[in-house]
Amino acid sequence: MKIIDNIKELKEEIKNLKGSIGLVPTMGALHEGHRSLIKKAAQQNDNVVVSVFVNPIQFGVNEDLDKYPRQLDKDCALCQKEGVKIVFAPKISEMYSENKDNLTLICPPYDIVNKLCGKARPGHFDGVCSVVAKLFNLTKASRAYFGQKDAQQLFIVKKMVLDLNFDVEIVSCPIIRDFDNLAVSSRNQYLTEKDRKLALNISKSLFNMKKLFKEGIKDTRILIDASLKIMEGLDVEYIEFVDKNTFDFQKEVNNNTLVLIAARVPESSTRLIDNMFLWEAE
Length: 282
Prior knowledge:
Layout: E1 2-4, H1 7-16, E2 21-26, H2 32-44, E3 47-52, H3 72-81, E4 86-88, H4 92-95, H5 110-113, H6 116-120, H7 124-139, E5 143-147, H8 151-163, E6 169-173, H9 193-214, H10 220-230, E7 235-243, E8 257-265, E9 270-277
Parallel strand pairs: 1-4, 2-3, 2-5, 3-4, 5-6
Antiparallel strand pairs: 7-8, 8-9
Helix pairs in contact: 7-8, 9-10
């Protein structure tokens, strides 16, 4: 496995690879969710490239850029164990040689980003799409792997690839949950034992909504009220229902419904997201 920190060397190594390339874009602090993406990439490709880059242009003012967990040695050890061919871990100056406030950015459609996480984090998805596009260009990936936990990001990246004719297949991978059903996330490292106990109510509310839907309840107002009772004590940012194919909001759920939640754990102010398809087949 090669650990590369500059674009010139990466391009040279990519040229020398034979066969398909699977890209797993990450911000590091790798966990079992990332491992599942890497395993899937290894199953479907001749070579796996993992990027480890805490991307500053997707963080807003007063967000956790400075304290975001960084553990490159551990990340590389995990990648080595999973047979990754290249870990690309550039510095900010390598990815953005100019003033990062004066960059050409990719801007997804306003109606998709001005909701959910995009509404709370203006400019976030511009930063995500721009860095992902750079990684597609640099790695010449055949396929790229994204987790369903970041559902809005996944939808937006898929749309970018379709609209801009990128020659890469986007592979969606399911949410990985810990033993207690908390969706795995690098930000879970911020949680104290007390925080984690409270955060578990996010997934509890999702599983409860799925149960209620199976029992025939389709009114989103009823489902939201039930969820807010379960998540009492959390600062709930949103509970929203969208059509998984369009990301349009829904007032009544159906077999295409994806329910998404964002909430903060008050004590540590850790922002967590989670989602679930309500239909059994998913």
